Each structure stands twice: as C-alpha cells, then as structure tokens.
Amino acid sequence: MQKMPKVTIDNETYDVAEGRNLLEAILDNRLELPYFCWHPELGSVGSCRLCAVKQYRDDDDQQGRLVTSCMTPATDGARISICDPEAAEFRRSVIEWLMINHPHDCPVCDEGGECHLQDMTVMTGHAHRRYRGRKRTFKNQNLGPFIHHEMNRCIQCYRCVRFYREYSAGEDLGVFASKNHVYFGRFEEGALELPFAGNLAEVCPTGVFTDKTQHRHFTRKWDLQSAPSVCTHCGLGCNTLPASRYGTLRRVTSRYNSEVNGYWLCDRGRFGYEYVNGADRLLAPASVADNGPPPSWDASAATIAGVLGEARARGTLAGVGSPRASLEANFVLREIVGADRFSPGLAEEEHRIVTRYLEFLESTSVRCASLRDANSVDTALVLGADVTNEAPLLDLALTQACRNAACRLTLTGLRRGRLSKFAADDLCLDPDQAAFFGAAIVATLRGAPEPPEALRDSLPPGAHECISETTAALSAARRPLIVAGTSARHRGVLEAAIQVAQSLESTSDGGKQPLVSLALPEPNTLGVTMLDGGEGPGLEDLLAAVESGRISTLIVCENDLFRRCSDPERLASALAKLEALIVLDQMETATTARARWALPVAAVTESSGTFVSGEGRAQRFFQVKAPIGESRACWRVLRDLFVEGRQEGSELAREWTATHHVSTVLASAHTSFGGIDEIAPPGDFRLLGQRIPRLSVRSSGRNAMPDMVSVRQDVQPPEDDDTPFAFSMEGYQGRGPTSLLPRYWSPGWNSNEAINQCQIEVGGPLHGGDPGRRLIEPGDGRTGSDGAGLQTVGVAAVPKGTLKAVLMLCGLSEIFGSEETSRRAPAVAESMPQAYVLLNPDTAVSLGVVGDCRYGLRLGINDKVREVSLTVRVDETLPLHVAGLPAGYPETSWWQAPCWATVEILGEDKQQELEKEQP
Amino acid sequence: MRSLLSGAITLLKGLSVTFRHQFYRRATYQYPEERAPIAPRNRGRIVLTRDPDGQGRCVSCYLCAAVCPVDCISMQATEDEHGRRYPEWFRINFSRCIYCGFCEEACPTYAIQLTPDYEMGEYDRDHLLYEKEDLLISGVGKQPEYNFYRHSGVSIGGKAKGEADGEKEPVDVRSLLP
Ligand code: SF4
Ligand code: SF4
Ligand code: SF4
Ligand code: SF4
Ligand code: FES
After folding, report:
1. Selection from A377, A372, A359 nearest residue A504 by Cα
2. What is the domain class of A803-917 according to CATH?
3. Nearest of A344, A339, A332, A340 to residue A650 by alpha carbon
4. What separation in angstroms does the CA of A635 have from each of A251, A601, A653, A820, A905?
C-alpha cells in the first residue's frame, strides 16, 4: 500500500489521504478551521481567504507565512499551524471586513440559526463592528416561486455561480459589476431556469438565497422536527430530510448520500412537499353509502373486512397496488388478495417495460447505474428519454460526467433540452425511431457491416453517421452508460437499450463496465414490480375481468387508476359496475371520488417503510410527523383489514405491529428482497436505552404549542413502534448511525456544513456506510439474453390518407407537472406549463395554428374520436410528424402510449364548449 | 448557677427586642389594600411593545422562544405584502414562566419586555395562556427610541433599500463608473 502523506498540524502529526488540500486535511481529521468558498463538490477558488493558516518551510522555520489552506496541497511533511495568533487574527479580520457591509438582518433572516456566516463569525471571535461608515445596499430580484433573494447579505464567496454555472451548467444566474459592487443574480428579474436552483439555498453560506416555500411558513432549524426520508417525486431515490413544525411540513432539504444524490436535490423533490399540507388530503374514512356521520375507523374496518372476505370466498376480489406506496403496504395488500389477484398498478405499457427491465437486470452482468456511477461515465447513450424531466438528478450526474470525464453524449429524445449543449450527437427522434437507432447500434456492435436497410430508412438523414460514431465511442468506452426512460411508453426503446448494453458486455475484453439506467417515474416502481414478479394481472386484464364481472370487488391502495388507463370513459364505466370499490389514498383523486369507501392514509413523510429505487437500492424512510387528520399508515390499515378478515395466514399478521415486522417477513418470503430488514435499524433499536430525538435540544415552545388543549399538558407525545426516533427533544444526544441522522448539527456547526463532520473523509461516504442497500448486483456467471428478443415493437402503422394531419402522439415528461403529488404543491403548480400540445412550427403552420394559443382539437385514434382543448406550443426541434402531449396531466391522461392520430382543428365556439367541460 | 443566670439574661434580652418592636413601623403590607413599592426593573408580567411608529416591534425571530428555559413561548412567523415580518400569533404560557427575563435579554428588537406587574393570580390555569392580543401593549416600554426596521437591511412598506439608517443608495449594477 502506498504511504499516506503526513502533515504536522499544530505540532501533531496526522495522516492525510492522497491529493487533498490542507483545508480538507484539517477537516478530515476533525479539526476546526473556518472557511467559506471551498465546497467538497465545487472545489477551491481561494476567494474568501478565511481558511488562512500559517505554513512553515521546515522544522527550523519559526517565522512561517500565511497561506490559504484550501489552495495549498497537503504534501508529505508539510508543517502548519491553525492556532497561530497571526493566522487567527487574520481570519478574524476577514470576517470583520465582511461585516462592514453586512446588514443587521439576523432576526428576520431565514438563514439565522443555520447560517454558516454566523458560525464562522463566532468561530473566529469577531464580535463588534468598529467601522462607522454607511453600508452598501443592493436591490433584490424576484427569482420565481422557489428561491428568495436578499442580496445585501452576500459575502462574495462565489459558491452560487460556481454551483449554478460551472457545476450545473445553468445559464441565467451570473455575477455582475465589479469591486465591492459585485452582484449575484439574473440579468433581469424572473424565475430561475435551472431545475436544481433550490440547491442555492444550501450552497449559499448566507441568507442571500433561501427557500421561498419555507419563507411562507417560516420556522428556524432548531425548531424543526425531522427524520431521514426518501424523495417520493421520482424513481431515483434521492435521500431527503423533510422537516415539520406544528403538524405541517415546512421544508425538505437534501440528505447526503455519496452513492445517490450526494449533496443535491432537484426542485421537484425539494419543493413538491407541500401537497402533504394540501386542502385536498383525505382526513377521515368516508363512505358514499351512508349519508349520516362519517364512519369510524373500527366500524369501517369491520365492514370492509367483511366485504373483502365475502368477495374472496366468491373469487371476485382483486387488489391494485401502487408504485408510490411502500413495499410493506403493497406486500400486505398482496397477502390479502393473493398473488394472482394483485396488480402492481402500473400503466399497461409501463408495466411491461419495467418487468422486462427487471428480468434483464436479474439475468445480466451489466450493472444498473447508481447516480454516483453516472457521474463518471465516459460515454452515454440516451435512448428516447428526456433525462432532465424524467430523472432530474441523473441530468446533474451526466452534466458532471460531461464536465469532468469529457463524456461523449448521444441524445435521442423527442426535443432538445438542457443536456443538448453537451451532446456530441443530438437527434430528435420519435420513440419508434429511437428504437430503430438503438437496434442499428446493436447490429453494428454485433459486426454487421451496415445497419439493416429497414432500420436505416426509418431514421432521419444524418442519423447514419451518428450510428457509426456512437457505436465506435461505445466500443471504445470503459464505462459506457445506456439510459432509457419509461415516459416514452415504448418497449422497443427499452429493448434496444438493453441489447446495446448486453452487446457491449459480451464484446467486452473485461476492462469495460457497461451500465444501464431506466428513468422511473415513481419512488417504488421497481419495488412493486419486483414484488409482483410477473404473477399478477396487468391493468388491462384487470379491467377486462371487471367488465366481464369476474371481479366485482376491488381494493386500490394509493393509486389513481385514471392516471394509468388510456380510456377514462371505459374505466369509469367499469368502476361503476363494481359492487364495491375500496380506495386507500392520501388525497382526493378521480378514483377516490368513485369509491364506495375512501380511507385516508398517511403520506410518506407521515409513515415509515421501504422503497426500491430505479437503481435497485432498497432505502428506508422514517416517519417525520404525525399523520394528518385521522389518516393512518397504509400498511397498517391493510394489516387491520387482513387481521379482521380472519383469512388464511392472517393470524401471523397479528404480530405485525411495527414496520420492520413486515419488512422482516417480506425479506424472508421473497428472495429478491433478502436483506431489506437490515438496511436500517429496526423500530426497537435504542442507543444507551434511548430513542433518537426528532427534535433538537434547542427546540422551543413545547409548553405553549398551538395544539395544546389545556395548560395541564396531560397529552404525551405519540407512541412510535415503527422507528427508533422519538417525537421529542429527549433521548440519545450523541451521534447515532448515519442512516438515522435526523439533522446535521455539530457543536459550533449549525449550518448544513456540519455534514462534513459525519463523513469519513469530507465529501466522501458517510461513517458506517451510506444508507440503503442495492438488491440487484450484476452476477458474474450470468449470460443475459442474446439479442433474439430484439423485436422492435413499432407503433401501429401510419393510417393511410391525408398524411399532413396524421401525427404521432408522444408523451413529454415535465419536471414540474408530470408527477402526481408534487403538482399539487403550490410552488410547483406555479411553475408548471398549462396542458398543451407541442408541435413543430412547420406542422403548426400546416395545421393553421399559432403557438401559445388555445385550440379545440379533434383527435382520431384508431377508431375513437377525442375532442380536447389545449394550448398549442411550438418547438422547432420536435420532429415534424410528432405531436407532444404532457405526461401525467389530467387533461391528457387518456394518452398512455405512443400512437398515430388524425388531428383536426375545431372552430372557436366548439373550443369554448370543450373548455367548459374539461376538468 | 452561672449558666442559669446567663440563660435568664439572654431570655430577657430577647424579650426586650420583641418588646421594643411594638413601637416600630409595621413591615407587613395589607395587600391588596396596600401595595409595596416595586422597582421598575422588577420582573413580572411580560408584554410585547410597539416601535415609535406604533407598529408591533416583534419580528418573530424565535430567539425568545429558543432561550426560554421552560419553553413557554411559541409563535408563528408571517410577513405582510411589503416584507415586514411579524408574528401571526404569539403565545406565552404564564403558568410555566419563571420570570427569569431571558427572553427580554435575547430579544434583538426590544419587543418583549418584563413589567413590574406581578398580579397574575387566576382561578383557572387556562387563563394563564396569553395570546398576542393579550401581550401587545400600545406603548414603547423601555428603549423608547428603538425601531429595528430602521436599522435592518430588509425593505418594508415605507422603507425601500438604502433608506435605513446608515445605508448607502442601492448599487447600480449596470453602472460603469468606478
Ligand atoms: S446571512 Fe447569516 S449573518 Fe447574515 S443576516 Fe442572515 S443569519 Fe445573519
Ligand atoms: S450569493 Fe451567497 S453563494 Fe453567492 S457569493 Fe453571495 S454569499 Fe456566496
Ligand atoms: S421570563 Fe424566562 S421563563 Fe418567562 S417567558 Fe421569558 S424566558 Fe421564558
Ligand atoms: S425575541 Fe423579540 S423579536 Fe424575536 S420573537 Fe421574541 S419578542 Fe419577537
Ligand atoms: S475557503 Fe479557502 S479561500 Fe475561501
């Protein structure tokens, strides 16, 4: 093993990892040194000079000289002093100079209490502003619904622009003016365009950029009640720290995980949380039959268990799980209805795609990429996916790959986007073409001299060169990554992606690690598909069974079927035929509106459980706050129904009193979930006999809370069997395992920079390993399929006739709008586009429409006609024959998979009429 | 014999003190008819004061709540449309307050102040929950001059950027002048 460099700091000798600078060496060894501008991910720029230390030439040097430690490499034998009086005085002066212009804002500043500037001021010992001159001021900008701007507080560390422009390749935030007038903002006022802008609130060490959603219901960090959780707004499984106060959720910040999201979150994940506080949450069990007072939980449970039992006996019961419910909830539901009656609740095409992907992962030695893997790939091929909108943080990871590793990127999405500026090849292809493109690459990789003619002809001109160049790059790459998406809803695309990865694997000489990634839309899409294991019916089959009367009782768990089904009218009439529809959900949906019983269940932040992310990583989330109203954790409601129903196997369920009981049963019942009971300590885990407090020791006001009924305070904090956390500030005060960190704090480090104290090496993995466990690791002896399955599933042939008005309807994912829960959060709702149809400008001209106006459209799909009113938008990068519709919008929920349609523009009065009818 | 004598003398001495006190002024106050003079800095009932412009001083910074050793203060911050932050509601549970005065010391705006009023007896403990309406007085209390928003850099209705005490005009970012 290589010898580690040794550095002498204040006469003590420390080991330091190779390639670190002095500041990192100091922090790695848990010593304290103030800093501002250095950031583990953004690197050093030496702009603040706060990290100054004394460096000595050798043992004889008594004089030393001041150096900025973040700009000085930690070489073997270096001798430095942190405590040297001259260095300490210099650092104090740096703060004093900054404070000359710093406003008297702490009491009204959202950063106060978690402000890195406050911490550093205290650490350096500066206390009195001696300067008596006037302070410089700036005007603020309105930066949209996510980020609050208060420019007076800036200390010119340049972290914001380094994050925004260098790290994330954003363009609309910059630094203006010169000398002590430098200004960090936009060229002109307006919403920030970067979908990761929320991270500014975390990288900015002061209160210049703060979370605007938190601003509206402001709470100090020390008062927030928090627990580790997992983001529910896409399938990447970013780790989060949601925080609540007085029973409502107040903010979400990122939870560091070096394997997954690192320090970051996307804006959908950060600002989508407010749906939890929404007015459309279900609060109490409701039953349409009774017009009287709402039924109680116990009464409903008994009645419903009876209904379920009867239906089960008759064989007419089925259950629909959900990709946004925990594994535990899905598992209990599956136990109730039986494996062959449990549908995972994915849209038909999506279900097939994910099942196929899973089958591939389980049989191949291609590795399913983590976000960290994606950071360092050298070639990436994105097939028919819109990474920025479907899997936002994967976009940020690929940005790093392109920036650092000079990754060669090929994009084949429907339209150009954020990543296009890095792309070596950027073809705008419809899903069919993307599949052909992939298939052509497979053919070339497998040694065909030319891609088959049939494939070539269907691609636009110029694609041919791209194919050969991309193929060459992929074969030469050491870490090639193939990305596909689910929102294209096209099996051919996935099949092509799989085959490219597999061909790369089989032609590899061993030094190559091909990676795949499938962008999944929901937090547990992979988990619920793994649980289903292909045994249960898809939604189409289920619908047919309901229509034919074979199924007459349906229990739906956290799923809005109207988002999954391409024929809402058919679905509605099928649901109407049911004898009983029982829906458990967090909020009102089109499905709960039709339910015989609608039972309120807790949101993710209000319950505990396990999600399996698209990477195959099982991650535990913990309850942050008490469930709203009378809602209960979904798995618990189902367990009660299970026990109440007294069916076979339900005696055991009596023992399931905590989430980890279910996880343990699941881990032993399904081999693919082996070990999920060990990914985090169970609910009865204690440290020195104590729970871990969800509240900080500094938390205030517990004797004057608004929900206090009487000053006698005879109400105890709620019991919690599911987690090792307490709804209290009392408990174990040391630092527990890193998978159980409810907040980042360390003495003297109140800001989120305290995270540095939790990592083995600053910027590296957490002590005790990053939370979560990968369930699917590439096996060695696996062979994978040989490409026989590469049938390009084409979109049914173009209907003959007036070709001009025949367009392929394709789904476009929107980071703000396509995801079901986040679109109910006010800040996200403000950022999402209105329901639209996206056309190429030339297509728009030929249809006689102009952009940004609303039109009535008559669409002929197969033999059905659908009339809608949508805003026409134009994008010149969209293929001519495509009409893009936003995925996940109630207005376009009838679109589930690419299809050809005749498009006709309706008159204005017809449009007005449609406008009135629409949801 | 000797000890008997000294015992009797001490007894008489003590009795003489008692006897003499018959002619002293009475120390007991016949409360509530009579009241003891209370120093103005005596720590009693807490109030929220207003700034010299007549607006509530509290900016809802949560510092008093954080410092309170018995956690008897809670509030929720909110903001008016011009950016002035104030407590939407503010509550002190006087059945817990120990009148330590820490809140007053922590308050950066001189909003929360302890007054000499100690007469807070109640028959019902729930009446000891004081809301913002009960706490807010119409005067400035101690530090009559102080107005936090005149010093702070945030703009509020009636005070734009650069108009606070000791502030320069806002920087013109597009100016090329040195
Ligand atoms: S940025 Fe920090 S130091 Fe400055 S006003 Fe805000 S809390 Fe105070
Ligand atoms: S705005 Fe914040 S991050 Fe940017 S330079 Fe100023 S203090 Fe640093
Ligand atoms: S006087 Fe002391 S106990 Fe009473 S509210 Fe203030 S800080 Fe709390
Ligand atoms: S410390 Fe003062 S300004 Fe801050 S919340 Fe308390 S009373 Fe209001
Ligand atoms: S942290 Fe080293 S100069 Fe800013």
Report:
1. A377
2. mainly beta
3. A332
4. 25, 9, 11, 21, 48
Query: What is the longest distance spanned by two Cα atoms in chain B?
Result: 107
Beta-ladder partners of A609:
A621
- Backbone φ and ψ of A342, nearest 5°: -105, 120
Q: Alpha helices, DSSP H only, in B58-125?
A: 63-67, 102-106
Q: Is A207 in the pocket of ligand 1 (CB under 6 A)?
A: yes
- Per domain, the residue ranges of chain A are 6-99, 803-917
Chain B partners within 8 Å of A219 (Cβ): 62, 77
Q: What is the ipTM of this complex?
A: 0.89
Cis amide bond preceding B116, omega within 30: no
| Interior angle at CA A72, CA A68 and CA A74, nearest 5 | 130
Q: What does pTM read for this prediction?
A: 0.92
What is the rounded CA–CA span in Å between residue A373 and residue B139? 63
pLDDT digits (tens, 9 = 90+) for A247-304: 899 999 999 999 999 999 999 999 999 999 988 999 988 887 655 556 788 888 888 9
Residue A706 CB partners (closer than 8 Å, separation 6+):
A246, B74, B76, B89, B91
Nearest C-alpha neighbor of A67 from the set A57, A43, A31, A76: A57
Angle, vertex CA A307, rays to CA A301 and CA A309, nearest 5 = 95
Give residue-wise pLDDT tens across range A681-700. Answer: 988 899 899 999 999 999 99
| Size of chain B in residues | 178
Distance from CA of A180 to the nearest CA of B (A): 10
Cα separation, A740 vs A746, in Å, equals: 15
Q: Domain B38-151: which topology?
A: Alpha-Beta Plaits (3.30.70)
Could you state, in order of their start, the residue ranges of all structural domains in chain B? 38-151
User: A6-99 has which CATH code?
Assistant: 3.10.20.740
Which residues in chain B (37-96) have CB-CB distances under 8 A to chain A? Answer: 59-63, 65-66, 68, 70-79, 85, 89, 91-93, 95-96
The SS3 of residue A331 is: helix
Cβ distance of B126 and A706 shorter than 8 Å: no
